Amino acid sequence: MLVLENVDAHYGKSHVLHGVSIEVRSGEVVGLLGRNGVGKTTTLKTIMGMARRTGGRITFEGRDLHGVPPHGLAGLGIAWVPEERRIFRLLTVLENLRTGLDRAGMTPERREALLEKVYTYFPILKERRNQAGGTLSGGEQQMLAIARAMMLEPKIILLDEPTEGLMPRMVAQIQEIVHALHRDGVAILLVEQNVPLTLDAAGRVYIMEKGAVRHHASSAELRADQRVIHEYLGV
Amino acid sequence: MDQILVQTLHGLVNGMVLAMVASGLTLIFGIMDIVNFAHGDLLMLGAFVGASVLGVTGNYWLALLGAALVIAALGAVLQVTTLRPLIGRDPLTTILATFGISLVIQKYALWQWGPSVRRISEPVPGDFTLFHLQYPWYRIATAVLAGLILGGLWLFLKYGKYGIWIRATTQDRLMAQAMGIPVPLVYTAVFAIGSAMAAASGVLFGPFAGVTQTMGFDFTLRAFIVVVVGGMGNLGGSILASIFVSLLESYAAIVVSPAQAVIVSFVVLVLTMLFRPTGLFVPTPK
Fold first, then answer.
1. Is B179 close to A95, i.e. CB distance below 8 A?
2. Interface predicted TM-score (ipTM)
């Protein structure tokens, strides 16, 4: 469904991605592991058209994303949950959700149903719906960022380090949500540093180092043979 | 005592008109980081368009609406043709571009309407007696109308779908794009709305002092002062600052001549820059 072929990317003059090839099939959860600064986040940003792609091809459902404006990706079914969460801090929780909900073709019933569904996953967001996004705790902001992405009813979510800096209880909740999204048939490209969580959630895993994919295996293989993980991630 | 009440009323009326001018300027700055030096000239052009529509139709309200629509369309065209290509460039280039637009509009107005003052007659006739002074009803009507327009803008930004798009884009352009909000379109729309607000203020202000092709600069300057005092990009702050500065000027005019009273706003500007550069009415600096 989402295919990156030999993608190169630059930030200014520095060459940050070197021929990255990744594929995420429909409904599949794929992990992207690697140390800090190896280009995981940049890979997601390149898909979103926010980092300068200087080579290779990115296609989504067979369609070349080159020339699709950044605001056109949501309409194709690609949602982004950035590492920094990027909550609209001065907008209320509900208004944050509305940024994804107020799109063409939404009937009032569908909006209600979608909101209710997200509130079932994240009851705390319903409680805080009239509170400014910037006043939420880190974990709540992460939930809001995921909930906001779900408002787009995406086919794939690019999930960037969702558990970073969260308490174990919150991490468990995020893990739960990833499973729930997977059950709903949403594909996820999961960037993480948390190896156990990634191996649990994802079917396949790509491991990056120095701006390139160095290893690609199923989670089962990696669980059985931890040497690769040790080599690239030092854990 | 009488004088203080009269000056309070005067300050409030001037403050409401200024608030309308400043709201457009601050909205544009907040979302695009563009200081629009042509803002006052769009106001002036709006006043001329209003005067022309009034001359043809004889209906003031039609003139107000017509000016707002024409200048909104012009604003959209200006944004697409001159400012959109400059997005992401050095801020200086956009300042120079809007300054250029300002000059072009001024010269166009001079060529089209000449250097003389055009009058816009008051749509609400009559005066009422305030102590020993005849105070025109129109000034009261202007303040009320400006309040209604600003209230409408606030409701639109607070509850409307497009209002949420505008606020989201103001806070985080990239994230807004990722949520499917067509950011380039939002920019153009905001520039059009800001231009329409300027044009409407021009038509509202027209009956006070007449319309000339040089009136724009003064408004740009005054609006810029209150936008800085209120906190750049902060709509509520700009409105409060407009009223605050206008009231101060009004009170100062009791002691000194009105021409000298203008100095007060510059003093407020300098003090704000020195002691609270994020704006007087920003609760917690980000």
1. no
2. 0.92
* Residue of chain B nearest A96, judged by CA positions: B168
Q: What is the spatial distance between Cα A212 and Cα A40, in angstroms, rounded to a whole number?
A: 9
What strands, in cross-sheet order, belong to the sheet with A63-64? A14-24, A2-11, A52-60, A63-64
- Expressed as residue numbers, the domain containing B56 is 12-214
Least confident of B50-64, B110-124, B272-286: B272-286
User: Around Cβ A9, how many Cβ atoms within 10 Å?
Assistant: 22
Please check whether residue B254 lies inside any domain of the structure.
no
CATH architecture, domain A2-233:
3-Layer(aba) Sandwich (3.40)
User: B185-239, pLDDT tens digit by residue?
Assistant: 999 999 999 999 999 999 999 988 889 998 999 999 999 999 999 988 888 999 9
Distance between CA B199 and CA B205 in Å, rounded? 10
State the Cα torsion A178-A180-A184-A187 to the nearest 10°: 10
The rounded distance, in Å, linking the Cα atoms of A97 and A117 is: 12
Give percent above pLDDT 70 in chain A.
100
Which of these, A143, A100, A149, A96, lies nearest to A123 by C-alpha position? Answer: A143
3-state secondary structure of B266: helix
Residue among A50, A71, A95 minimizing CB distance to B180: A71
Classify burial at A39, counting beta carbons within 10 Å of its beta carbon; exposed 0-12, middle 13-18, buried 19 or more: buried
Q: Backbone phi, then psi, for A18, in 5-degree steps? A: -120, 95
Unique residue bearing structure tokens 């200048």: B71
b vs e for A144-157, b when ≥16 Cβ sit within 10 Å of the residue's Cβ? bbbbbbbbbbbbbb
In a domain, B236, yes or no: no
Whether residue B183 lies within 8 A of chain A, CB to CB, comes out as yes
DSSP assigned state of B133: E
User: In this structure, is residue B244 part of a structural domain?
Assistant: no
Q: CB under 8 Å to B130, separation ≥6 — which residues?
A: B5, B6, B9
Is B101 inside a domain boundary? yes
CB–CB contact A88 B183 (8 Å)? no
Residue A32 contacts residue A208 (beta carbons within 8 Å): yes
Using an 8 Å CB-CB cutoff, list chain A residues near B183: 70-71
Pick from B161, B165, B178: CB nearest A74: B178
Q: How many domains does chain B have?
A: 1
For chain A, the 3-state helix, strand and coil shares in percent, each to the nearest 5, are 40, 30, 30
Q: Which residues contact B237 (CB under 8 A, 6 or more apart)?
A: B26, B229, B230, B231, B279, B280, B281, B282
At B258 the pLDDT is 80
